[in-house]
Amino acid sequence: MRTEWMNQEAPVRPEGGISRRGFMKAGAALGGGLVLGFFIPTAGRFARAAGAAPAPSAPNAFLHIAPDNTVTVMVNRLEFGQGVHTALPMLMAEELDADWSQVRGELAPAGDAFKDPLMGMQMTGGSGSVAHSFTQYREIGARARAMLVAAAAQKWNVQPAQCKTANGVVFGPAGQKASYGELADAAMAQPVPATVTLKDPKDFRFIGKPMKRIDARAKSNGRQQFGLDFKPENCKVALVARPPVFGARVARVDAAKALAIKGVRAVVEVPTDRGGRGVAVIADGYWPAKLGRDALAIDWDTSAVAKTDTAKLMQEYASLAKTPGTVAKKADIAPLAGAPKKISAVYEFPYLAHAPMEPLNCVVDLRADHCTVWAGTQFQTADQAAVAATAGLKPEQVTVNTMMAGGGFGRRAVPTSDYIVEAVGVAKAWRAAGHGEPVKVMWSREDDIKGGYYRPAYVHRADIGLDAKGNIVAWDHAIVGQSIITGTPFEPYMVKNGVDATSVEGMGEPYAVPMNLTVHNTKANVPVLWWRSVGSTHTAFVMETLIDEAAHLANMDPVAYRKKLMGPEHKRHLAALDLAVAKSGYGKKALPKGHAWGVALHESFNSVVAYVVEASLDKGAPKLHRVTAGVHCNLAVNPLTVEAQVQGAALMALGTTLPGAAITLKDGLVQQQNFNDYRVARMNEMPHVDVFIVPSAEPPTGMGEPGLPPLAPAFANALYRLTGKRLRKLPFDLTAA
């Protein structure tokens, strides 16, 4: 897209924007004022593929300007730390010419109006929140502004073109002025304009400027309510004893000791994920529910389910990687046999837990004809449908309230809606026992670590041939691992010819290399799911360490070698890499003795992040000192958010390199249970991270995930320069390299 596109009249777009017919005034609601909503007349591609019916025409309030000048913007995503609670209101406030001090954000419940305009479902994922709603939110703000101006012009008997707006006020040609709050009721009587002209980027007041987050104060002083904090009146708390092997069932349960604990109200058997059965203890609060669950005596029937052993699984994967799989990319690898220089490598990547700071939770108020759910969900549309199916209701009989969440990294976006379906199952059992109070199902940290839906384990096998000058002449590559897309609504267009696109994303790119790539999509009794940056969590590490190794064999500087393989057509990659190199001092600044540089770059979710890192060995253990990031995400809507995203992603990526950062299974049992045996990076391990953004006025691309993939390979490349050892697996193990 060109910059000019951002300044033209908003066209009718079937998926990327909202036509005038899609905008509706929601009527006198919320105490008066201007209430502007819209509906999406056609479902997006994912909804169509799943056979969903077109969205109904009921309007939903997206923007409310109250008589007291408060501007409330509905955020159609989940806010779980990534900053959309500020970025999306910024987009609307920009075109509205609002007074930023009067702008508020509110998380939208499940509703057709709030669906992602490209995806056709309400969701938060794929780093698409700002990228997909960039035009959508701006158009809403521009239309509301036009209606306010029209109301003022009518009041003053002047032409709208004679009026101007600034900071939530309309100014007339003769010095008249009226606040948006004063005009809001009259603006409701104005027609929604057929077209609007969006601002030129040079006129932006908010977009592209570092803006403090709307939710920062409440989160800093403890007043912000998260899902885990929410408990309606008379609500009970439930903890579920889930089967130790995924999909297992209850053979026998003795609940006598649990029922004897003060505050325990019921013990009921409930369905769990993947066809399993568990036991829920329902009590007056968390502690009696926990004590009750601890007191249960349960015999589990695991006879009908496979018992995964990761040590054996990785051996099988390594053997499978030696054989051809389903073709994802085809290239002539005949030159490999006679190549004078060769690289042969096998990489291993473990299962990873998402481990968000706030474990999963869900409140369910189940009535005979309606069900209300409160959850920090990334998949409102899917979860609303799943609640309805589980409760025996219609989707319109289900209200899903989006709660602020303390992280997720994909775990709150589950196609099976596992934790929400389970909570509804608990509420059904509670109701069947003759009770009617709401039930809050909570997960402990141990439940979270052991509870499934992990980043899959993978094995890569690479054989690369280089000529005498260091040019790559053939690259034969195989990937082995479970598919996260097969069996989900995304399968029809993300699994092509048997290849899960997420398993191979980023392979080969952006380098001009003749790669023959095959994939083995395996089966295992381990639930798997996308994890922050999805396939790039492993493909970036493989690509960027192998390219670094090829540069060494070619006797070339790793930055120069990358630039040679990319070519001038990859302008965004080159700009990000050049920026990181320049700001870090790479190649110019002398490092302390025992320190070394490492470089990597990767594109994911249409954004490019390049890292130049400085590392050393501290008593034989890898230590990351400094990270310099060059970021190309097109227009950075809120540079402060981009900086925070990259810093957080870098720390999360660092965690994947630390000993103990792996989920392992033996006889079907997950062996880790808390942060004492599942490692995440801590504050004392945080390196200094500088983030630099390539200037651009092009429409924004994703930023929630792209900061993660290139960090670990950059670190590994620095360690090679210190040790001479090529690291082939995560987490790092220098003794095995």
UniProtKB/TrEMBL annotation:
Highest taxon listed in the record's lineage: Bacteria
Domain Aldehyde oxidase/xanthine dehydrogenase a/b hammerhead span(s) in chain numbering: 221-304
SMART domains associated with the record: Ald_Xan_dh_C
PROSITE patterns reported for this sequence: TAT
SUPFAM superfamilies the record matches: Molybdenum cofactor-binding domain
Gene3D superfamilies, sorted: Aldehyde oxidase/xanthine dehydrogenase, a/b hammerhead, Aldehyde oxidase/xanthine dehydrogenase, molybdopterin binding domain
Record InterPro entries: Ald_Oxase/Xan_DH_a/b (IPR000674), AldOxase/xan_DH_MoCoBD1 (IPR008274), AldOxase/xan_DH_MoCoBD2 (IPR046867), AldOxase/xan_DH_Mopterin-bd_sf (IPR037165), N-heterocyclic_Hydroxylase (IPR052516), OxRdtase_Mopterin-bd_su_IorB (IPR012368), TAT_signal (IPR006311), TAT_signal_bac_arc (IPR019546)
Pfam families named in the record: MoCoBD_1, MoCoBD_2
Record-given protein name: Xanthine dehydrogenase family protein molybdopterin-binding subunit
Taxonomic path: Bacteria, Pseudomonadati, Pseudomonadota, Betaproteobacteria, Burkholderiales
